[in-house]
Design a protein that fits this description.
six-stranded mixed β-barrel, 174 residues, 40% strand, 3 helices, mainly beta, elongated, three-stranded mixed sheet
Length: 174
């Protein structure tokens, strides 16, 4: 599992003033979790997008929270999952991000995307089309055991009206 690191700073600006942060290339966010006080922070927009592209919502990210410039405190690392990304309705640029701090010894529930592999013979013979009802499923596992995606082999669907159910999917151990 690749280690993802993201640097953040504590944030005191709230409300409409966060527009200025976005103009400066910063993304406002919040980190919260069980038995943890919620904390407002900012991360670099470009840095966040790189980490989000590789980690997604199921990859563990080490969030290094630095104090405001001028203090000599060392950054405190927290293990987090990218929980929610709010996006602009037109440009799809991220507006706000929520990080869920997790305990590595406690199971979490999260949604994991499905990756469909193979080509069904019914599709290649042009007698049917593949319809997917779900594109992600909810999984409960330790944060270190969360898969990036779950592969679903659809190459066995050779007749029209055949279906795969969640019970038919091979789940990784853990």
């Amino acid at each position: 599992m690749k280690k993802h690191v993201l640097k953040a700073e504590k944030r005191t600006l709230v409300g409409r003033k966060v527009k200025n942060l976005r103009k400066a290339g910063q993304l406002p966010g919040t980190v919260y979790g069980k038995k943890v006080a919620s904390q407002s922070l900012t991360v670099g927009s470009d840095d966040f997008l790189k980490v989000y592209k590789s980690a997604g919502e199921t990859g563990l990210v080490e969030l290094l929270i630095e104090e405001k410039k001028g203090s000599s405190g060392l950054p405190a690392g927290r293990q987090v999952l990218i929980h929610t990304v709010q996006r602009h309705a037109v440009t799809h640029a991220p507006l706000h991000v929520e990080f869920l701090q997790v305990d590595l010894k406690e199971k979490v529930k999260t949604r994991v995307p499905l990756a469909f592999v193979g080509t069904p013979p019914a599709v290649s013979q042009k007698i049917g089309i593949l319809l997917t009802v779900l594109d992600e499923v909810e999984v409960e596992a330790l944060p270190t055991d969360l898969p990036e995606h779950i592969e679903v082999d659809v190459s066995g669907l050779d007749a029209v009206n055949q279906e795969l159910k969640i019970a038919d999917v091979k789940i990784p151990s853990g």
